[in-house]
Design a protein that fits this description.
With 247 residues, the chain is of the alpha/beta class. 45% of the residues lie in helices and 16% in strands. It is built from 12 helices and 8 strands. The chain has an 8-stranded parallel beta barrel with strand order 1-2-3-4-5-6-7-8, surrounded by 7 helices. Helix 5 links the parallel strand 4 and strand 5. Helix 4 packs parallel to helix 5 and helix 7 crosses helix 8. Bound molecules: cytidine-5'-monophosphate.
Length: 247
C-alpha cells in the first residue's frame, strides 16, 4: 500500500461516538485534514458496517479497530469480511490469539482482494496498555509488560502481520527489533498544550506527536484532543504541523 506522503496521512482520528450521525457530522468537519478515521467497537457495535460505508464516502482511509481474538477459522472469516468493506486500510487482531490465529488472519486479508489491488494492512495488538505487571500476573502471564510486548511484536512479525498498535514508550524497541518496514501505530498522543491543561483523562502514559514520530511511529491515533477541542480543525492542523516538523 502506498500511503499519501503528506504528513496528514500519519494522523488517524478516533471516531469514538455511539451515534453514526454524530460521528459523520464530526468527521465531515475535518476529513480534509486527516489521513484516516478509526472506527472502534463502540461505533461499530451501535451502527454496524454502515458506519464504515458512510465514513468511506468522505474519501479518507479507515482503521477498523475491532481487535479480533478467537479461533483461527472465526478470525479468518471476520478478517475476510472486514477487508471487503470500502475504505478499510488498517484492521487488527490480538497477538495473544497465537501464531496460528495470526497466520489465518494474514491469509484471509488478501483472499478476497482482486489481483493487483491494494489490500488492507493487518496490525496486532500486543498487550493492552491497561495491563500492568499485576494484571498480567493475575491472568498467568509472567515477565514485565515491556518484555511481553516485544516478544508478541516479534511473534506477530514472524506470523506475517504487517505491524502493531503500541504505546510511544514501546515504539522505539519495537522499531529496533522488527525493522523499518514494520508498521507502528501509537495511541495515547497528547499535544503539549493539553499536557498542561487541568483536564485529565484516562490515558496514563501519554506522549506528544513529536515524541511519537521520533520514537518511530508511522501513524498516530488521536481521539479526545481533537474530539473535545473547541476548534477541532485547529487542533487537527496543529497536530499535523507538529508531525511535519518532527519528520
Ligand atoms: O481519546 P484518545 O486520544 O485517548 O483516544 C485514543 C483511541 O485509541 C481510543 O479510541 C482508544 O480506544 C484507542 N486505544 C488506546 N490505547 C490503546 C489502544 C487503542 O487509547 N492501547
Amino acid at each position: 500500500m502506498t500511503f499519501d506522503a503528506h504528513p496528514r496521512s500519519s494522523l488517524i482520528v478516533a471516531l469514538d461516538f455511539d451515534s453514526l450521525s454524530t460521528a459523520l457530522k464530526f468527521a465531515e468537519q475535518i476529513a480534509d485534514l486527516v489521513g484516516m478515521f478509526k472506527i472502534g467497537k463502540q461505533l461499530f457495535t451501535s451502527a454496524g458496517p454502515e458506519a464504515v460505508r458512510q465514513v468511506a464516502k468522505l474519501g479518507t482511509g479507515i482503521f477498523l479497530d475491532l481487535k479480533y481474538h478467537d479461533i483461527p477459522n472465526t478470525v479468518a472469516g471476520a478478517v475476510l469480511a472486514a477487508a471487503a468493506l470500502p475504505g478499510v486500510q488498517l484492521l487488527n487482531i490480538h497477538a495473544l490469539g497465537g501464531s496460528a490465529m495470526m497466520q489465518a488472519a494474514v491469509q484471509a486479508i488478501s483472499a478476497g482482494i482482486p489481483m493487483g489491488e491494494d489490500r488492507p494492512r493487518l496490525l496486532a495488538v500486543t498487550l493492552l496498555t491497561s495491563m500492568d505487571s499485576k494484571a498480567m500476573k493475575e491472568v498467568g502471564i509472567a515477565g514485565t509488560p515491556q518484555a511481553r510486548v516485544l516478544h508478541l511484536a516479534k511473534l506477530a512479525k514472524k506470523s506475517g502481520v504487517d505491524g502493531v498498535v503500541a504505546s510511544v514508550q514501546e515504539a522505539k524497541a519495537i522499531r529496533k527489533a522488527c525493522g523499518r518496514e514494520f508498521l507502528i501505530v501509537t495511541p495515547g498522543v497528547r499535544p503539549k498544550e493539553n499536557s498542561t491543561s487541568t483536564k485529565k483523562d484516562d490515558q496514563a502514559r501519554t506522549a506528544t506527536p513529536r515524541d511519537a514520530i521520533e520514537a518511530g511511529a508511522d501513524f498516530l491515533v488521536v481521539g479526545r484532543p481533537i474530539l473535545a477541542a473547541v476548534d477541532p480543525r485547529a487542533a487537527a492542523t496543529a497536530i499535523v504541523e507538529e508531525i511535519a516538523s518532527a519528520k
